[in-house]
Write a structure and sequence with these properties.
Length: 252
């Protein structure tokens, strides 16, 4: 009797397994049929979508690996001439270009930093040109325009980025906008904390506070410079400035 029961259970077990297997097979067939139906129904969209993706990838690759490096090289070549005149303090020529220079291909009319920034803004050299254009404008007394170019500079550099921000402070000082000057000097001091630009712009911020007759803040900023950057160049005569603002502000 026991053997008969075992045989019956084995038969039922095999039947269950076969049924489950048949269900799985049927489910797979339904899934495949569903995919085929979906593809047939949306074949055009899938084909066009795939083509669009390939086009985007091709455009991106062309831009990144061919067009952009070419633009960077062109911008670098143009910047060489403007940089040469900048280093000679010929700021108007460096800014506007327009004079003939000798290149490997013969004589050409050089671009100034303004044109380089405008024509090669997608490159790093083009973005750095905004900084140099701002400096040229600052040196030639065009302070409001200098601010416009310096604000366009967006290259992350430990020294140049805070310097650009601090120069916006200088331009505002020249425009007698002391509140703006203080704001940008403090921003420059914090933008890249180091022993060169930070104490330099803290000192400028403190001086701007003095021009506002805000001697309390001037004192606090000078003292911060002294305490945090005692070995900096700006800290060498800092006690003299501290004594001065204490006297002017009648601070004990």
């Amino acid at each position: 009797m026991s053997e008969e029961i075992d045989q019956i259970e084995n038969v039922e077990s095999k039947a269950n397994i076969e049924t489950k297997s048949a269900k799985k097979s049927s489910s797979k067939e339904m899934d495949l049929a569903g995919l085929e139906f979906f593809y047939e129904k949306n074949k055009k969209a899938i084909t066009y979508g795939g083509g669009a993706i390939l086009a985007i990838v091709a455009i991106f690759s062309f831009y990144k690996f061919y067009w952009l490096p070419g633009q960077e090289q062109e911008a670098s070549n143009e910047s060489f001439y403007a940089q040469t005149y900048f280093e000679k303090d010929s700021f108007l020529v460096a800014l506007n270009g327009g004079i003939n220079v000798q290149s490997s291909e013969g004589q050409k009319t050089m671009m100034g930093f303004k044109d380089i920034a405008e024509n090669y803004g997608s490159t790093k050299t083009g973005r750095v040109a905004n900084y140099y254009a701002g400096v040229c404008l600052l040196r030639t007394g065009k302070f409001a325009e200098a601010i416009e170019y310096l604000e366009k500079y967006d290259v992350k550099d430990e020294m140049l980025a805070p310097t650009a921000t601090g120069l916006i402070g200088d331009a505002n000082m020249e425009l007698n906008k002391m509140d703006e000057a203080v704001k940008f000097y403090l921003k420059a001091a914090e933008q890249s904390t180091n022993s060169f630009t930070t104490p330099y712009f803290l000192k400028k911020a403190a001086f701007a506070y003095e021009q506002k007759a805000n001697y309390t803040e001037a004192l606090a900023t000078y003292e911060r410079l002294k305490n945090e950057y005692p070995k900096s160049t700006e800290a060498r005569e800092i006690d003299k400035y501290i004594a001065r603002v204490k006297t002017l502000g009648n601070i004990q």
